[in-house]
């Protein structure tokens, strides 16, 4: 695919480094190119502080060397629609920003630069960190976080253990087994020589990056430990640091609520199949959603549905179980527990999450606007009945799972086999599996 660059496309390069950290990815400046053909025409740079004026990235020298930083520096990530004459910036409140990514400067594909926390949450978090140490509002966030009791324990640790993440707010870490945490360390892409379950090769800053990401939003970690290349329904991870991440671009499910009946049936069928894979998989992890919305799932250009936002995913290890020390959560709360929300939020016990939880949420909130009123009678009545039963929280697990299975059976023949569904075409012409 050719790069989708506008007449004044932009690149990013490193800007000033200061000892303040974690508002996001890196301190950068914005550059403009003189034409859409940078290989043929000399560059004319007009630089200013992209980080300071747009993303407030002037507090992040600890991100230097991370994958997101390198991709910006080497101009492997470019934005095409922000600049005009006179030079302008995009709005700073959006949850994500479209861009193009290339690792060879020839073929480009769409990606998203996503906020892991809203701008308002980020501002509150900064003030909260400074206030925790009775420091001025413009304190060195990195310096304060380094002095915390939790991080001092991380510095001494050779292995990431459940006690080191107790009290962190992510549902991903509500029930952490040692097997799951070993997978986090072994798959963590932001360190050299990844592959070991021990953190001997982690620098102090590597440990702070990982701890901060787990505390703010575990979405980038989930993309790394359950990669799409291994069959998991998650987009490709391209880099993250602080409060920003880059991943393969998808269109949110909400954009398809007005889709044609055959496309709506296909997306609903895929969504139910995704939830089934989260409940039952070869690794014996049970992944469940604590909440969903119309932006939780996304669709690639080939029609394939993926999890777009994994921040609300919890993980229970059915093979190893969960740590027994669940009662110590209150004692483990600290500033890392309260970076984005109040410190009083209570998450349910690991042992009270029903298998039906994600199905109930999806059948209540996402499938009705996608499927209602799309099909002739009596098919529509069958769909509506199965949806009501699938979304009934008072029903026992087997009945909800049975209703979801019946809904899949109804939807299967409503899907068509044509080039619009490139993720399964032309295979669907030769096998009922697709």
* Rounded Rg: 23 Å
Mean pLDDT: 80
| Beta-strand percent range | 5-15%
Multimeric status of the protein: single chain
N to C succession of SSEs: EEHHEEEHHHHHHHEEEHEEEEHHHH
DSSP strand tally:
12
Give the spatial strand order of the biggest sheet.
3-4-5-7-6
The end-to-end span amounts to 26 Å
Contiguous uncertain segments of 5+ residues: 1-60, 325-329
**What is the count of DSSP helices, taking H or I runs of 4+ residues?**
14
Largest sheet: 5 strands, antiparallel
Shape: globular
Helix content: 25-40%
What structural class results from the helix and strand content?
alpha+beta
What's the layout of helices and strands?
Layout: E1 10-14, E2 28-32, H1 50-55, H2 67-73, E3 77-78, E4 96-101, E5 109-115, H3 119-132, H4 141-146, H5 149-156, H6 162-165, H7 178-187, H8 204-216, H9 219-225, E6 237-241, E7 244-248, E8 251-252, H10 261-279, E9 285-289, E10 297-299, E11 305-307, E12 313-317, H11 357-365, H12 367-371, H13 379-390, H14 397-411
Antiparallel strand pairs: 1-2, 3-4, 4-5, 5-7, 6-7, 8-10, 9-12, 10-11
Helix pairs in contact: 7-9, 10-14, 13-14
């Amino acid at each position: 695919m050719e790069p989708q660059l506008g007449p004044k496309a932009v690149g990013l390069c490193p800007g000033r480094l200061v000892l303040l950290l974690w508002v996001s990815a890196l301190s950068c400046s914005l550059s403009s190119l003189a034409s859409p053909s940078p290989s043929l025409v000399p560059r004319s740079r007009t630089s200013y502080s992209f980080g300071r004026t747009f993303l407030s990235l002037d507090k992040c020298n600890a991100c230097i060397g991370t994958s997101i930083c390198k991709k910006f520096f080497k101009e492997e990530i470019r934005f095409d629609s922000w600049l005009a004459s006179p030079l302008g910036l995009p709005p700073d409140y959006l949850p994500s920003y479209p861009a193009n990514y290339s690792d060879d400067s020839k073929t480009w594909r769409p990606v998203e630069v996503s906020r892991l926390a809203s701008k308002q949450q980020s501002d509150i978090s900064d003030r909260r960190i400074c206030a925790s140490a009775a420091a001025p509002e413009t304190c060195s966030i990195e310096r304060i976080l380094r002095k915390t009791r939790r991080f001092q324990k991380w510095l001494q640790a050779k292995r990431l253990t459940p006690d080191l993440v107790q009290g962190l707010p992510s549902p991903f870490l509500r029930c952490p087994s040692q097997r799951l945490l070993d997978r986090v360390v072994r798959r963590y892409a932001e360190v050299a020589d990844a592959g070991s379950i021990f953190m001997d090769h982690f620098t102090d800053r590597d440990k702070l990056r990982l701890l901060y990401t787990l505390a703010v939003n575990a979405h980038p970690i989930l993309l790394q430990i359950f990669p799409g290349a291994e069959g998991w329904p998650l987009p490709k991870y391209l880099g993250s640091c602080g409060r920003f991440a880059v991943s393969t671009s998808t269109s949110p499910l909400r954009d398809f609520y007005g889709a044609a009946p055959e496309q709506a049936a296909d997306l609903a069928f895929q969504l139910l199949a995704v939830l089934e894979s989260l409940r039952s998989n070869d690794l014996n992890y049970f992944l469940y959603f604590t909440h969903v919305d119309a932006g939780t799932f996304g669709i690639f250009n080939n029609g394939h549905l993926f999890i777009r936002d994994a921040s609300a995913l919890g993980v229970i290890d059915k093979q190893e179980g969960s740590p027994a020390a669940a009662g110590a959560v209150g004692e483990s709360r600290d500033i890392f527990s309260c970076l984005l929300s109040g410190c009083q939020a209570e998450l349910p016990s690991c042992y009270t999450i029903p298998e039906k939880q994600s199905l109930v949420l999806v059948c209540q909130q996402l499938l009705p606007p996608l499927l209602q009123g799309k099909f002739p009678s009596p098919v529509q009545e069958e769909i509506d009945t199965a949806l009501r039963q699938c979304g009934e929280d008072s029903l026992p697990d087997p009945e909800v799972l049975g209703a979801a299975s019946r809904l899949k059976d109804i939807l299967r023949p409503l899907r068509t086999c044509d080039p619009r569904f490139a993720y399964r075409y032309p295979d669907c012409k030769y096998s009922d599996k697709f």
